[in-house]
Amino acid sequence: MSIVINIDVVLAMRKMKSIELAKLIGITEQNLSILKTGKAKAIRISTLDALCKHLKCQPGDILEYQENNQ
Question: Where would I find the HTH cro/C1-type domain in this sequence (predicted)?
Fold first, then answer.
């Protein structure tokens, strides 16, 4: 996939655990894991908004485009 999700990087920078973030944004740990691993097919704007709010970051800090070399 061309879009890379950097939630783990931002979590580490904020010294926050996944379980804590999942509770704050109102999704399950399993769904957060799906987002973190890039297995999600879509992300709601409201979820991205909550991620940015609680991680105190911009959407570009979480989402990154990488050109495929295939």
Answer: 20-62
pLDDT tens figures, 29-59: 999 999 999 899 999 999 999 999 999 999 9
Which residue has 């295939």 as its token pair? 70
DSSP per-residue letters across 2-14: -EEE-HHHHHHHH
The residues, any chain, with a CB within 8 Å of residue 44's CB and separated by 6 or more, are none
Give the global pTM: 0.87
Alpha-carbon gap, residue 42 to 15, rounded angstroms: 26
Pairwise CA distance, residues 18 & 33, whole Å: 8
